[in-house]
């Protein structure tokens, strides 16, 4: 091959390369954008451990997150404080359903802190709530400890870690300090304020009495809901409902 022909061939190849690299910029952008995953939806549950309505929601409704592919598109947070009140003068906590609830709220908080992955701590919390524990006001029963220990064994969670958490600064003392700074403060500063429990929010917007329809709101908030099987379920009508503004 002569030098002139070789030079011509190299120039042609170079031209084709430059043309392709600069052509169809919109297509290149589209391809790049297609690889960007939509932001996950924030789903939060503000609850208390012995509330019958919270129990029913966790056991019958929230569990659906783990039985579908919904967990892939949400950041799930459980906040075990509910309607508890922090009394500043003597640094005590009053729970709506008595001392047992304060105790279990702290056990829940310890599990969430030790095992942040919802797949882990939800199994434990679900097990406790599924027991249908009786409410005994103004007393702490030893039966509560037996229940959570049995649930920790079923969930493969180290009982000692939970007990150490409860007995340490993050446990009973955390009821006065850490939990106040974390869950109590967060619950107290909700806007709009929570009116009851369970109180469910999607991207920080309360669902009010529509909380059992949380899947609908989660799917509406997720941009690629067509790719989520839970959002395409025949039993789920995904509509463009606005968040309710009244309790």
Q: What can you tell me about this protein's structure?
A:
This protein has helices at residues 3-22, 25-34, 52-62, 64-67, 99-114, 118-129, 143-155, 159-167, 178-188, 214-221, and strands at 41-47, 74-80, 85-87, 92-94, 199-202, 205-206. With 247 residues, the protein is of the alpha+beta class. The protein has one domain (41-232): Glutaredoxin (3-Layer(aba) Sandwich). The strands form two sheets. It has a four-stranded mixed β-sheet with strand order 2-1-5-6. Strands 3-4 form a two-stranded antiparallel ribbon. The longest helix is centred in the first third of the chain and has 20 residues, at 3-22. The radius of gyration is 26 Å and the shape is globular. This is Gamma-interferon-inducible lysosomal thiol reductase. It comes from Gossypium davidsonii. One of its GO terms (molecular function) is oxidoreductase activity, acting on a sulfur group of donors, disulfide as acceptor.
What secondary-structure arrangement, pairings included, does this model have?
Layout: H1 3-22, H2 25-34, E1 41-47, H3 52-62, H4 64-67, E2 74-80, E3 85-87, E4 92-94, H5 99-114, H6 118-129, H7 143-155, H8 159-167, H9 178-188, E5 199-202, E6 205-206, H10 214-221
Parallel strand pairs: 1-2
Antiparallel strand pairs: 1-5, 3-4, 5-6
Helix pairs in contact: 5-6, 5-8, 6-7
Helix count, DSSP H or I runs of 4 or more residues: 10
Number of strands: 6
The CATH superfamily is Glutaredoxin
- Tell me the series of helices and strands, N- to C-terminal: HHEHHEEEHHHHHEEH
Main features:
6 strands; 4-stranded mixed β-sheet; two-stranded antiparallel ribbon; Interferon-induced_GILT; 247 residues; signal; 10 helices; alpha+beta; Gamma-interferon-inducible lysosomal thiol reductase; Glutaredoxin; glycoprotein; oxidoreductase activity, acting on a sulfur group of donors, disulfide as acceptor
């Amino acid at each position: 091959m002569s030098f002139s022909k070789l030079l011509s061939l190299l120039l042609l190849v170079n031209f084709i390369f430059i043309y392709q690299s600069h052509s169809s910029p919109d297509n290149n952008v589209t391809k790049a954008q297609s690889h960007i995953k939509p932001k996950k939806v924030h789903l939060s549950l503000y609850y208390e451990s012995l509330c019958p309505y919270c129990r029913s929601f966790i056991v019958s409704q929230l569990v659906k997150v783990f039985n579908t592919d919904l967990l892939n598109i949400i950041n799930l947070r459980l906040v075990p404080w509910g309607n508890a009140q922090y009394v500043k003068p003597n640094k005590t906590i009053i729970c709506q359903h008595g001392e047992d609830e304060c105790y279990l709220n702290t056990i829940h908080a310890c599990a969430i802190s030790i095992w942040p992955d919802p797949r882990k701590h939800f199994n434990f919390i679900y097990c406790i709530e599924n027991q249908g524990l009786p409410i005994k006001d103004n007393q702490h029963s030893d039966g509560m400890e037996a229940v959570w220990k049995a649930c920790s064994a079923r969930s493969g969670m180290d009982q000692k870690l939970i007990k150490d958490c409860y007995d340490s600064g993050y446990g009973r003392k955390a009821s006065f300090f850490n939990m106040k700074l974390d869950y109590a403060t967060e619950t107290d500063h909700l806007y709009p304020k929570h009116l009851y429990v369970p109180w469910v929010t999607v991207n920080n917007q309360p669902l009010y009495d529509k909380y059992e329809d949380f899947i609908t709101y989660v799917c509406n908030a997720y941009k690629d809901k067509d790719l989520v099987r839970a959002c395409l379920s025949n039993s789920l009508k995904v509509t463009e409902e606005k968040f309710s503004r009244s309790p």
